[in-house]
Amino acid sequence: MEECNLRDVAIIGVSQTKFGELWDISFRDLITEAGLKAVADAGIEGAELEAMFVGNMTAGLFVKQEHIASLIADHSGLTPMPCTRVEAACASGGLALRSGIMAVASGFHDIVISAGVEKMTDVVDPTPAIATASDQEWEAQQGVTFPSLYAMIAKRHMYQYGTTREQLAMFSVANHKNGALNPLAQFPMEITVDQVLNSSMVADPLRLLDCSPVTDGAAAVILCPAEEARKYTDTPIYVKASAQASGTIALHDRRDITTIDSTVHAARTAYDMAGLEPKDIQAVEVHDCFSINGLLAIEDLGFVEKGQAGPAVEDGMTEIGGKIPVNPSGGLKSRGHPLGATGIAQAAEMVWQLRGDAGKRQIDGIEVGMTQNIGGTGGTATVHIFGR
Question: How confident is the model at residue 4 (pLDDT cuts 50, 70, 90)?
């Protein structure tokens, strides 16, 4: 076969619904709202869309609805346009974004919408549904939950590198400081280290305010060939890299549970694809489902040496105005974590930052940004780099 010449891809429209416990809006209405807002932001008509990729972890367990690709295309008035559901646990949104990017880059489609949605609050207890992202035989069936898995990672990181309980709390505090400036965040309020340390114990050493919440929400982005982008907007944002890697689904199979190997590999691929290094990234949205995972991300993406994320957070390196601003949106902890939508919401935030449309949480002079979205404890990871 002849070598395929891939096209450069741009983002011309983005959206995010309000995140939270959204009792008055249905699953289908959430994703439709996100799609309509993204289409309006791009200045296009729905009829111009050629394909849709939707990230969703488990609508079947949360809202008793499978075959959501058909449901979404139907409810959005987009039939017969092809719509594909993409699933990789909490990384479903990141993979939906990557699927859309590949569809445009390959020339198979010109204008594509990548979206993500999750409605998590329609069940009494979401824990069994979320646990399906872990290894059923060796983890979930033995009573292990994601808080306990990440608690083990946190304990090991503290033992191996001297990370303190206070440093974990500081990561949550920094997220909420940013999230307080985000009107779409689930918990747009500031918190203190003492509040984190005195919140309810979930799985030692992780407490309630170390953990991302149960969230309803949706987000969407519109993609097109880079060469066509300025037909639609004066502020296109370009995809400089899209990378994905796999890791073990079970924690006990890792060579080192304080490193998410899938993140490391996806980041290396993304840096190579973009021709950039960690020092070139001016902001990053990371997958902080628990505070410890935010610290791991800073290390595994190459911003600090392994074991040094705790001191970096304590020194203010990750705050807006710091050396590498992390989670200007508020992250999963404050903005919220509707599983299938998170990877898309991260991309939307980075687009707003690069456009200069992020309001009170705007990072001055940003030209290059990154997102990191993982599934489970790192069985899947996606890393994207965007630029002006």
Answer: low
